[in-house]
């Protein structure tokens, strides 16, 4: 029953982000900033796509792309131990992947490992200080006191 409730929460969160991001006239949080309308056409191809629950897909061609993207899938299914393992492998393969660091922070947060989450979020911001999907994240701001 707990897994069904968790799954419904993810579905509802995804719907809320979809509805908000469809109205480009009314930006709301980071959801409106991550869509194609907010990103110049030249940057769209290289920009990582956000998953519906906030986890970020890797940039195309990243050495850790396969592990990160599988971690996102596991994260969306609520398998935090597996997701965390995949995100850690992605970070090891590509230490400059801000998306993998950010996702690692998300998974640590969900597991209640807040010190580890804070460290991963700090690293993600250091790697991509201008990425709105990262720097404008409410969960990241909560951990970093921003």
Can you lay out the helices and strands and say which pair or pack?
Layout: H1 2-22, H2 29-33, H3 41-44, H4 65-76, H5 80-93, H6 98-110, H7 114-127, H8 132-135, H9 138-144
Structure characteristics:
Serine Threonine Protein Phosphatase 5, Tetratricopeptide repeat, 146 residues, globular, mainly alpha
How does this model look, in words?
Helices cover 64% and strands 0% of the residues. Helix 4 runs antiparallel to helix 5 and helix 4 packs parallel to helix 6 (98-110). It has 9 helices and no strands. The chain is mostly helical. The chain has a domain at 49-144: Serine Threonine Protein Phosphatase 5, Tetratricopeptide repeat, CATH 1.25.40.10. Mean pLDDT is 75; it is low at 12-47. The chain has helices at residues 2-22, 29-33, 41-44, 65-76, 80-93, 98-110, 114-127, 132-135, 138-144. The radius of gyration is 14 Å and the shape is globular.
The number of helical segments is 9
Structural class: mainly alpha
Text of the CATH class of the domain at 49-144: Mainly Alpha
Instruction: Choose one word for the global shape.
Output: globular
CATH homologous superfamily designation of the domain at 49-144: Tetratricopeptide repeat domain
In terms of DSSP E residues, the strand content is under 5%
- Mean of the pLDDT scores? 75
The counted number of beta strands is 0
Helix content percent band: 55-70%
Distance between the termini: 35 Å
**How is the main sheet built?**
none
Low-confidence stretches: 12-47
CATH-defined architecture of the domain at 49-144:
Alpha Horseshoe
Radius of gyration, Cα only, in angstroms? 14 Å
CATH domain fold name of the domain at 49-144: Serine Threonine Protein Phosphatase 5, Tetratricopeptide repeat
Q: Give the helices and strands as they follow along the chain.
A: HHHHHHHHH
